[in-house]
Amino acid sequence: MRVARTILRGFVGRTCADVRDGTAEQREKARVGRRGRDILRGMSSVLDRAYRVAAAIPPPNLDWALDRADTLRAWGLRLLGRGGASMWVGREKRAAFLGVGMLTFSLAIAVTFPVALFAIGPIVYGVPHILSDIRYLLARPGLSRRPLFLGALVAGCALGAVGLGVRGAIVGAALALAASRAPATRKVFGIGVAFVVFGACQWAGWYADLAFVHLHNFVAVAIWLLWRRHETRLHWIFTALFFGATAAIALGAASPILAHTGGLSAPWTDLTFRGIARSLSPPNSGVWAERLTVLFVFAQAAHYVVWLRLMPEDDRPSPAPRSYRKTYKALVEDVGGTVMWMTFIGALVFAVWAFHSVGGARNAYLRMAFFHGHLELIAVAVLWAEGLFPFVPQRMAARAEPSEAIGV
């Protein structure tokens, strides 16, 4: 009996000790969890205060220019008459008409004077298209209000800047997926895909970055197609023209035109075809250097058409067009006065720089704007994982934290 009591006391003692240790471990985990939540709430509070301060800054006053633009558009619609104006009212018709018209014009310039378009396009449309990236991929879905997402975005861009290139964007996407509000299955699948793609990019080296430079223009078209449910099939006209022109350029359809126009030479841009091809094609001379360069110039122009014309059309709650004044007001409500001033000043700086050196201004813009491709990849990964395609403003608003404007 004495031996049995000794054994029982030892067992009970060990059990009580295990319970105490387990309870202490659980308390420590709970304390760490509370500390993490407190830190996250603190970061959110600081971010929210920063947004409020930035949103309080009034945007550039463009009322005079906007009123003149509205007057000019009203005059143009009167010239079109009732039949022409009716095409302007429906969202699908308007987007198809404008998108196809702008894409056709871009194609004509790309296959005749690609070096000129390569130089001028980013100077004119580059900064506004980054603003559109911020508006539709960060502000509208509410991702700009999430500290962990912003941390993943900064990490991905920083890794890309120090030499990882597209691999940095993939790491950022994996971090953003891990911190997202997506179901666990989608998180695991997305991170697994990111791991596989990272390995492939590590093996491919510079060719992976080259592929990303070309493919990110096609990503914009895919985002637009997925952004909302289309009521008609008119959007397929733009899509067919884009991919048809892409195939034609890849097969060499632009070569006879370029031989006639001499568009591969534009000394006034301070850029050379060989220098451009070196950044866009494995061979920097020959048939494929020409085809890949023209293809990139055309796809980049389509990229701008999507972000600056088609995305605003499809994202607008009302199918009817609105005045330029109301459009500007909605833009300011989404991004705030600070971003508008940054956009205005940035566009002005590159425009003035271009008077001194077109090529220098274009190269400076690229060094500043390298991050926007990373932003698109990381944001799209999270939007897909959280099931936010197609875009539904009410559902997006419910998932985002309440705010007045993005502010920064």
Main beta sheet, described? Answer: none
How would you name the oligomeric state of the polypeptide chains in this document?
A: single chain
Helix content: over 70%
Structural class by helix and strand composition: mainly alpha
Determine the N-to-C terminus distance.
Answer: 77 Å
Low-pLDDT runs: 394-408
Could you say which overall geometry the principal axes of the C-alpha atoms support? Answer: globular
Instruction: Kindly state the number of beta strands.
Output: 0
% residues in beta strands: under 5%
Radius of gyration: 26 Å
Number of domains: 2
The DSSP helix count reads 16
Order of helices and strands: HHHHHHHHHHHHHHHH
What is the residue-mean pLDDT, rounded to a whole number?
A: 83
Please, could you describe this protein's structure?
This protein has helices at 2-55, 63-89, 91-112, 114-139, 147-164, 166-178, 184-204, 206-227, 235-250, 255-261, 273-280, 287-315, 324-356, 358-369, 371-385, 393-399. Residues 394-408 have low confidence and may be disordered. It folds into 2 domains: 1-56; 62-399, no CATH class. The termini are far apart. With 408 residues, the chain is mainly alpha-helical. It is globular. 81% of the residues lie in helices and 0% in strands. Helix 3 (91-112) packs antiparallel against helix 4 and helix 5 runs antiparallel to helix 6.
Main attributes of the structure:
globular, disordered C terminus, 2 domains, 408 residues
